[in-house]
Amino acid sequence: MLETTILASVPLGSMLFVLIAFLLLMWVLSKVAYGPLMNILDQRADKISSDLDGAETARQQAEELASKRQGELANARNEATKVVADAKASAQKQSDVLVSQASDRAQAINSQAEVEAQKLKDDAISSAKNDVAALSVAIASKLMQKELSLNDQQALIDAYISDLEKSE
């Protein structure tokens, strides 16, 4: 009831004036304050949306770059492993060649030494046979006090040598 008394006490012209003033004020505010304020808010919303899109793009690029770096790192590790394996294989191959060459050279030296030892042995035996033959003839001739003939000397030497060979 209080409301009806307030409305009844306000004349219709004043009420219409207040309503028109209010609508005019709303129109002025929408042109002066709400329009620019809404533009600013729209611009800010657009900027935030753009920044979010840019951040998402940057994140995706960073993930792609990280993935690419991981792939390159894996490739580099594989290549390094391959280089190390190749170097080991090459070193082993060179080692095998050097060992083979050293073994061949040692065998050649051993064979040469055996040949030289056999030659020295044969020379020593031949020299010993000649020395023994000369000594035998000298001893035999002193014992017999006579000179042996060449055929007798040869037979005596051959007999002595055959006895030496049997005793060896």
Automatic annotation (TrEMBL):
The chain crosses the membrane at residues 6-29. Residues 45-79 form a coiled coil. Gene3D superfamilies: 6.10.250.1580. GO terms for molecular function: proton-transporting ATP synthase activity, rotational mechanism; proton-transporting ATPase activity, rotational mechanism. F(1)F(0) ATP synthase produces ATP from ADP in the presence of a proton or sodium gradient. F-type ATPases consist of two structural domains, F(1) containing the extramembraneous catalytic core and F(0) containing the membrane proton channel, linked together by a central stalk and a peripheral stalk. During catalysis, ATP synthesis in the catalytic domain of F(1) is coupled via a rotary mechanism of the central stalk subunits to proton translocation. NCBIfam families: ATP_synt_b (TIGR01144). Belongs to the ATPase B chain family. This is ATP synthase subunit b. The gene is atpF.
